[in-house]
Amino acid sequence: IPVSAHLAGVGLLIAFLSTLGCFVRAPGMSMNMAEGDTLISVDYEIFGKVQGVFFRKYTQAEGKKLGLVGWVQNTDQGTVQGQLQGPISKVRHMQEWLETRGSPKSHIDRANFRNEKVIVKLDYSDFQIVK
């Protein structure tokens, strides 16, 4: 098989796998670039029994564990709100955690996510609890 035909076949395979959501690591590319993990920012508000149950502390710990940055705070309305920033796959994981898990003693009624946008760089250096 001529080399050019072999390279064309590899190119088609990569294009096909990319459409399926599979990512191939090209030499010299970082894994984040290869994974297509675009950085996003999203605001959130969590409703339910989420104050007085260490929700902010657990949210901060989960965010840090996932390598996300942002903040979390209690509101005067009895909710918890904040912002997440990081690779889209990690933010999606955190959104699911906020909707379904939270802290052990919390009870989540619903989670609202808004102002989702692609960002070029992170606005924060860590994940903070805002008092």
TrEMBL record:
<dbReference type="InterPro" id="IPR036046">
    <property type="entry name" value="Acylphosphatase-like_dom_sf"/>
</dbReference>
<dbReference type="Pfam" id="PF00708">
    <property type="entry name" value="Acylphosphatase"/>
</dbReference>
<feature type="active site">
    <location>
        <position position="74"/>
    </location>
</feature>
<protein>
    <recommendedName>
        <fullName>Acylphosphatase</fullName>
        <ecNumber>3.6.1.7</ecNumber>
    </recommendedName>
</protein>
<comment type="similarity">
    <text>Belongs to the acylphosphatase family.</text>
</comment>
<keyword id="KW-0812">Transmembrane</keyword>
<keyword id="KW-1133">Transmembrane helix</keyword>
<dbReference type="InterPro" id="IPR020456">
    <property type="entry name" value="Acylphosphatase"/>
</dbReference>
<feature type="active site">
    <location>
        <position position="56"/>
    </location>
</feature>
<dbReference type="InterPro" id="IPR017968">
    <property type="entry name" value="Acylphosphatase_CS"/>
</dbReference>
<feature type="domain" description="Acylphosphatase-like">
    <location>
        <begin position="41"/>
        <end position="131"/>
    </location>
</feature>
<dbReference type="GO" id="GO:0003998">
    <property type="term" value="F:acylphosphatase activity"/>
</dbReference>
<keyword id="KW-0378">Hydrolase</keyword>
<dbReference type="InterPro" id="IPR001792">
    <property type="entry name" value="Acylphosphatase-like_dom"/>
</dbReference>
<keyword id="KW-0472">Membrane</keyword>
<feature type="transmembrane region" description="Helical">
    <location>
        <begin position="6"/>
        <end position="24"/>
    </location>
</feature>
